[in-house]
Task: inverse folding
């Protein structure tokens, strides 16, 4: 049984995305702890990539700040090892295929296991390419999270049937970033997912406000928020954790 | 030559967001349907011949041959195509395909601006909307081409992210495609990106080697001993190599942009300095650091200033069928000037990389041997930058 399921055990899940090392890893640790103590059920830790093609400007800039600050995959693993002493909610990495590939897939995935990471989200690894890392993920008990998009159509069932951990449902076309409205009709997609998978579904991309989170989690099992949190980091830097804590509390309350 | 999911050996694949998967599947299906359709091929050939000016000439460079004192040198004059480069071969094919698919809008990335100009041209011709992403630094290096694109009715969006060069333009075009798929075709300009692009672009550029083979057979009654082309993503090179892949006697040589040298960080020579990775939808060789962060590459040539190489080239390198050699800025600039003075032909600075390598090897070859250099584009666009390189500032 995947540990990720536990994140969905107490009502609708609130999932927070935080880029590691923006502006430094000490701030990331405080931000994660603030998010968790204010109700975040699962944390997506972003390993920054130089060219994040699925991200909008906010997370692109967060990646750039983190890399400029000197963070590396090795430093992030060391950070997670420490973080795990204080944080027990499920943790997943969100990064790009080349970060894993270049580190050495087996070394990366076995270190995920050893440091206590529960899953891996790679937005540039679609169903057709998942064999690149899936056998190693299975071997080391790290869930490789599948994404489903509004354009997936005839692919939804196929992806859902083989998905692990939770399903990341992309709310709308385009890249990450806050949106004033989410207009996609997600219900038919979620119906197909439910018919084909028994794992939870969380919706991300574009969610920033409590009423959006409530609406999206109402359709599914949880809401994922990234850019809105990165904006707080961009604005407050090292002082961001307390603001993130307050924001997460507000969002989580909206789900309950 | 590619197998399932567009693999060339271990290279290629479809490493893209799920949002784009149905779009590339739809593209592959449409391509497979139309490439076998006689009507599509008739239309495309008419465009290539009557509009783009094909076949391009294979010119015997007598003075250069005499001056270098070795192999006979022929120039494949892709610079004579409409819009001034080989890029039009691929763009006319993709634009026609997009139109058949019911798309009304083309988006493209561009480095030197040649692919952007070609895409803007095809969009104007076929009555389609066109948006071109170009690194902000390149919009400065290639201001003339920015003007040409706008004149042709395209919107040019300067990309400020990352290194503000070709790789960032590709990233931004991919992002735009995930935003708007229904009416939009991403007209990728090189043999890179996710399957089926490396195959589609290769097939549309293969006309170059098909013509070289026929033209040389007519002029010399034989195959060349070497075919030389510059390589960024690698579209003119794969186009120049393709019909010779099975002719093992023909050396296939791709010239990479070494920038200030492959022993410096200011280089874009992917095969010579990169390693295996996954980026921009494909597995191939990339310039990157030990953690897989893509390197900020450099070349005087905006068109070769890219940290990766197409997956088929990566495979031709692995198998040893083609060789990939580095050529520095300085060597390319000298070749740019050399071809202008020797043959009265001003090549694109990209193509000058291939000319430079031919200058090195021709003297070591026998007089009975033959080299074909693909002059992928013309150099008008580069004159201001080369003048600057030589310390001269041009004003209109």
Result:
């Amino acid at each position: 049984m995947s540990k990720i399921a536990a994140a969905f055990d107490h009502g609708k899940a609130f999932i927070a995305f935080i880029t590691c090392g923006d502006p430094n890893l000490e701030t990331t640790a405080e931000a994660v702890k603030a998010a968790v103590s204010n109700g975040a059920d699962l944390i997506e830790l972003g390993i920054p990539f130089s060219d994040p093609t699925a991200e909008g400007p906010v997370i692109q800039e967060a990646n750039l700040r983190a890399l400029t600050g000197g963070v590396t995959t090795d430093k992030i693993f060391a950070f997670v090892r420490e973080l795990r002493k204080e944080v027990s909610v499920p943790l997943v990495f969100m990064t790009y295929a080349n970060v894993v590939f270049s580190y050495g897939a087996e070394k990366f995935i076995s270190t995920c296991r050893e440091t206590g990471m529960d899953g891996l989200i790679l937005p540039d690894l679609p169903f057709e390419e998942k064999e690149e890392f899936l056998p190693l993920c299975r071997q080391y008990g790290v869930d490789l999270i599948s994404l489903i998009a509004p354009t997936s159509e005839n692919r939804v069932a196929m992806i859902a049937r083989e998905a692990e951990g939770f399903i990341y449902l992309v709310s709308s076309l385009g890249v990450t970033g806050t949106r004033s409205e989410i207009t996609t009709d997600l219900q038919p997609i979620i119906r197909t997912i439910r018919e084909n998978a028994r794992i939870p579904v969380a919706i991300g991309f574009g969610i920033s406000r409590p009423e959006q989170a409530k609406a999206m989690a109402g359709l599914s099992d949880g809401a994922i928020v990234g850019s809105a949190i990165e904006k707080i980091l961009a604005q407050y830097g090292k002082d961001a954790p307390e603001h993130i804590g307050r924001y997460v509390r507000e969002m989580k309350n909206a789900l309950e | 030559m590619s197998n399932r999911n567009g693999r060339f050996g271990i290279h290629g694949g479809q490493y893209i967001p799920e949002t784009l998967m149905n779009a590339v599947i739809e593209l592959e299906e449409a391509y497979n349907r139309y490439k076998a359709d006689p009507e599509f091929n008739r239309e495309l050939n008419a465009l290539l011949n009557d509009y783009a000016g094909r076949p391009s000439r294979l010119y015997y460079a007598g003075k250069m041959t005499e001056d270098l004192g070795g192999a006979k040198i022929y120039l494949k004059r892709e610079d004579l195509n409409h819009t001034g480069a080989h890029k039009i071969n691929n763009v006319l094919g993709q634009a026609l395909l997009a139109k058949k698919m019911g798309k009304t809008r083309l988006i493209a990335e561009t480095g030197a601006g040649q692919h952007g100009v070609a895409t803007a041209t095809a969009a104007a011709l076929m009555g389609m909307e066109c948006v071109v992403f170009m690194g902000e630094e390149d919009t400065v290096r290639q201001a003339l081409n920015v003007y040409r694109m706008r004149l042709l009715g395209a919107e040019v969006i300067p990309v400020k992210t990352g290194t503000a060069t070709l790789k960032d333009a590709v990233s931004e075009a991919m992002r735009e495609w995930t935003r708007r798929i229904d009416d939009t075709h991403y007209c990728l300009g090189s043999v890179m990106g996710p399957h089926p692009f490396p195959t589609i672009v290769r097939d549309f550029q293969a006309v170059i080697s098909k013509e070289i083979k026929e033209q040389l057979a007519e002029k010399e009654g034989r195959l060349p001993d070497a075919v030389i082309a510059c390589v960024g993503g690698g579209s003119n090179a794969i186009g120049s190599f393709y019909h010779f892949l099975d002719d093992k006697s023909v050396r296939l040589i791709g010239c990479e942009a070494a920038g200030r040298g492959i022993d410096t960080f200011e280089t874009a020579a992917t095969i010579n300095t990169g390693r295996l990775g996954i980026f921009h939808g494909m597995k191939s060789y990339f310039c990157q650091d030990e953690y897989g962060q893509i390197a900020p590459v450099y070349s005087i040539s905006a068109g070769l200033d890219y940290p990766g190489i197409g997956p088929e080239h990566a495979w031709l390198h692995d198998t040893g069928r083609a060789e990939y050699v580095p050529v520095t800025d300085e060597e390319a600039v000298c070749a740019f000037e050399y071809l202008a003075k020797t043959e009265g032909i001003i090549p694109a600075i990209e193509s000058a990389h291939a000319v430079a390598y031919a200058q090195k090897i021709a003297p070591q070859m026998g007089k009975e041997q033959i080299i074909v250099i693909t002059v992928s584009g013309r150099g008008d666009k580069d004159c201001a930058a080369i003048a600057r390189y030589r310390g001269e500032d041009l004003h209109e």
